[in-house]
Each structure stands twice: as C-alpha cells, then as structure tokens.
Amino acid sequence: MRPTTELYGRGVYRFLLSRQWVILTLVSLLLIPTMIRLGFWQMHRYEERTARNQLVSDALSSDAVPVERLTAVGHVVTRGERYRNVSATGVFDTGHEVVVRRRVNADDTVGFHVLTPLVLTDGKVLLVNRGWIPADGPTQTAFPEIPAPPAGRVTVTGRLMPDETTAASGIKDLKGLPDRQVMLINSERESRRLGTQVLGGYIALTAPAPKGDSPELLGPPGSEDAALNFAYTIQWWLFAAGVPVGWLILVRREARERAAAAAREPEPAEPATV
Membrane-spanning regions, if any (predicted)? Predict the structure, then answer.
C-alpha cells in the first residue's frame, strides 16, 4: 500500500481547483467581510440606542421648567428637548377640545387621546394631551364623552413632545374626519384652526391627575433593547471567525477522504518478465 505522504505529494489538495471548491471558497471570502460589516452595523445600532435611552432617562428625570423656556410659537421641538418636564399655567379651553383617533392604551385597546388647548396668561396656547379615553363604538364617528379638566386657572406639568407627522409616526393623515377629530397632533395646524398663536409641539400631561382616573394619563416611553444589538454584534463577528475555521475543517475532511479512497485503489500490475 502506498504511504500517505506519497499520496499527498501527488496532489490530494488538487480538488481545491474544482469548480465546486472554487465557488465555495469565493463564497466564504465574501461572507467574512459581510459578516464583519453587519457586526459593525449592529454595534452602531447599540450605541445609538444606548445614547437614546440615556437621553430619555435624563429628560424624564429632569426638573420641570416653564414651558416657554423650551418652546415658542413656530418652534420645532428637538431630540434633546423631547420628554423634558415642563410646567405651564393657564385655563383649559374645552370648547375647542379635539380627540386624536386610533390611539391605544397600555392594554392595546383602541380609543382616543384628548387634546385640550391651555390658554396661557399671555394669550398664547399650549396643546395638552390629557390622556386616553375609550371609543364609544367600533366606528369612532361620534364625539365621545370626555371628563372635564380642572376649571379656572390651573398649573399643569407634562412631558414636552414634538409635533406629530406622518413621516415620523407612520400614521396617515386622513381627510373627511368627523367633527373635532384629528389623526395627528400638530401645533401649526391647530394654530390655523384656533386662529391664535400656539406653542410648538405639545405636552403629555403628568399632573394634576384627573378625577376618576379618566382620561388615563400616558405612561413614560419604554427603553429600547440596546443589549440585543450588542449580542447580535458578537454573533456576527463569531460567524465571521467561524467561516475560515469551517472552510479549513471541510478541506481537511475532503483531503482525508480522498487520501483514504486513493489508498484503497489496487497497485498497478507489474509487467510480466519473459
């Protein structure tokens, strides 16, 4: 039987030049940088989400400041201003109250958000999302019964929010809605409807708590699962490291099988001497 070293010397690894192995090798070479790139992308997402979670946490724990320190008429609420705690003093204008359609509560029940203008001492208006109420029926065409806010002059606190847009929220701004119903909370649009100056953005009310717990106050935003992106980062990089290891294991197994098959072949018969 021929020794193994002789078999290897005669080109056991020549199979790497076959079409099948050339394609496998090229695919492996393409997978490695692709997986490394995906790992960096997931790391970028991890850093983004971690930064956002910290920004939200800092905003939610901030002391309340007068709302006009952070927003004004025509102001666009920035990412750093979002969720900041603010306070304002004025009188609720329930005569121009509207409801925001297709909003869900913590139990995923569809209903409305109650949007009530708060007329400040200087005559400007702050939009206040007083919370969630259930819909009266499945069609949501009738204006629902809304618990009244505190009467007279009142001081409120809430989380500052940017104007809603279809691009940011994914909510379509439908036309032809029933009277006093809207799809999006938008200060510019409410300014035109009310015919007065409205501060940019709106607030999600946190205090005073409504009597009878209705409308339901909106809960704080949840944190994004940044740890999952970090786990995906490690996973992609482990996959990238595993590709050459797997390729080498397959090559060595193929070489052993070919060597064993070659070793089992009978020796060529020597020519007979006369």
Answer: 20-40, 230-250
